[in-house]
Amino acid sequence: MDQKSLYYLEKAPVPKAIMHMVIPMMLSFIATLIYNITDAFYIGKLDNTAMMAAVTLALPFSAILMALGNLFGAGAGTYVSRLLGEDNADRAKQVSSVNFWLSIFTGAIFMAICLPLLTPILQLLGARGESLVHTRDYILMFVIGAPLIIANFSLEQTVRAEGASTASMMGMLAGVIINMVLDPIFIFLLHMDIMGAALASVIGNVISVVWFIYYLQKKSTVQSVSIKDFKPNKEICKNIFKVGISAFLLDGFLAITSLLFNNFAVLYGDSIVAGVGISQRVVQIVDFISMSFSMGVVPLIAFAYSAKNHERLMKIIKKTTLYMVGITMGLSAILFVFRAQIISAFSIDSDVIAIGQIILMAQLCSTIFAGLSALFTGIFQAFGKGIQSTVMSVMRGIAFIPILILGNMLFAVNGIIWAMTISEAFACIVGLFLWLGIRKKSLLEISTKEADEPQNHTDIIVEQ
């Protein structure tokens, strides 16, 4: 195998390898955040409340497409990293090809199902009156573009799986930039309104997919999207889906919990809803950083685990935990100190400012637990432990529901505000016990293999 593709996975100093995988993800998240703000700004300029409502109503539909993409991407990505750790590039090419074509086929099936059922889907999303027409226009573009939108989410993760985090970032940024350029053209110049915003988003996904295909076919020596490598079998599908299902369920449960939380918050008035909205936007900065660590290092962990490199594996896990916890707590502390000023920058309503500070404090407390829970989930996915990763995904969603209901019954609004923090802490504890349960056995397997097959310590210093 070409050592350029594997340098950061196999031989780069651990701190350098971690930052190589994490920083491009942070930049991608920041670009996505900027795009979301810009997109909302352009649609807001149309001065049509029904259109703004349509974008909000379509969010669960977009979440389904992302979940389907992660179903393939998370499973195939971790499997590719493990195969590279085993020096099995031929199978890695088959897996990446199966990942791509199954994503396309699933998207085509999804489109065929949704097109005739568009009206019932809109009703399920809650679209009514004027917003019904705009939601239909918006979602129609995503239904037509479903195959490539799903492929975009899945390919990004497999590109990153071989350590090519910069190439992964470039693909994501290309889509975001094209989207931002096309938004005002389609919305205002061509008078396509909200359908133009959706079309720009779909084209952005197409550009990203084109880049990822180019990289995997022309630049990568260990992956492929060629139809000749599309050779699905029971082993490949099992390894993709046993991990991918956990990512799919996590996305699904996060959408459900978000919907539940908003519905309970509405019961206590607009000030609570406004406070939640402001706090979520602020905390998103910290969440993106912790997500960059928990998601970015998965290929490093998977490769080291599969290569039976115990020392490097534990160093990656320990340093990632240290960096993530340190940065998350540091940023959270700064935001906590200036919480009053931050909330005041978004609202002049005294009620919103007062309750917003409490909500922000609760959500800042949950970020550290959410980050650790995500890291545990990522470790289980990297190890190919489908049961543990699925338990974590389900736990993060299921635990929140009774905690939210019980909190509302016993402590009213305060119970709702702190429900997410308590459920994330509970999931974090479950993750710790699951990790302790598999750690000894997994590392014992590595140590046994190390004793039989001495590691090659030759250092190869190259630039990707």
UniProtKB/TrEMBL annotation:
<comment type="similarity">
    <text>Belongs to the multi antimicrobial extrusion (MATE) (TC 2.A.66.1) family. MepA subfamily.</text>
</comment>
<keyword id="KW-0813">Transport</keyword>
<dbReference type="GO" id="GO:0015297">
    <property type="term" value="F:antiporter activity"/>
</dbReference>
<dbReference type="GO" id="GO:0046677">
    <property type="term" value="P:response to antibiotic"/>
</dbReference>
<keyword id="KW-0812">Transmembrane</keyword>
<dbReference type="GO" id="GO:0042910">
    <property type="term" value="F:xenobiotic transmembrane transporter activity"/>
</dbReference>
<dbReference type="InterPro" id="IPR051327">
    <property type="entry name" value="MATE_MepA_subfamily"/>
</dbReference>
<keyword id="KW-1003">Cell membrane</keyword>
<feature type="transmembrane region" description="Helical">
    <location>
        <begin position="288"/>
        <end position="308"/>
    </location>
</feature>
<feature type="transmembrane region" description="Helical">
    <location>
        <begin position="138"/>
        <end position="155"/>
    </location>
</feature>
<feature type="transmembrane region" description="Helical">
    <location>
        <begin position="320"/>
        <end position="342"/>
    </location>
</feature>
<feature type="transmembrane region" description="Helical">
    <location>
        <begin position="248"/>
        <end position="268"/>
    </location>
</feature>
<keyword id="KW-0472">Membrane</keyword>
<keyword id="KW-0046">Antibiotic resistance</keyword>
<dbReference type="InterPro" id="IPR045070">
    <property type="entry name" value="MATE_MepA-like"/>
</dbReference>
<dbReference type="Pfam" id="PF01554">
    <property type="entry name" value="MatE"/>
</dbReference>
<feature type="transmembrane region" description="Helical">
    <location>
        <begin position="98"/>
        <end position="118"/>
    </location>
</feature>
<protein>
    <recommendedName>
        <fullName>Multidrug export protein MepA</fullName>
    </recommendedName>
</protein>
<dbReference type="InterPro" id="IPR002528">
    <property type="entry name" value="MATE_fam"/>
</dbReference>
<feature type="transmembrane region" description="Helical">
    <location>
        <begin position="194"/>
        <end position="216"/>
    </location>
</feature>
<keyword id="KW-1133">Transmembrane helix</keyword>
<feature type="transmembrane region" description="Helical">
    <location>
        <begin position="354"/>
        <end position="379"/>
    </location>
</feature>
<feature type="transmembrane region" description="Helical">
    <location>
        <begin position="50"/>
        <end position="77"/>
    </location>
</feature>
<feature type="transmembrane region" description="Helical">
    <location>
        <begin position="167"/>
        <end position="188"/>
    </location>
</feature>
<feature type="transmembrane region" description="Helical">
    <location>
        <begin position="417"/>
        <end position="438"/>
    </location>
</feature>
<dbReference type="InterPro" id="IPR048279">
    <property type="entry name" value="MdtK-like"/>
</dbReference>
<feature type="transmembrane region" description="Helical">
    <location>
        <begin position="391"/>
        <end position="411"/>
    </location>
</feature>
<dbReference type="GO" id="GO:0005886">
    <property type="term" value="C:plasma membrane"/>
</dbReference>
<feature type="transmembrane region" description="Helical">
    <location>
        <begin position="21"/>
        <end position="38"/>
    </location>
</feature>
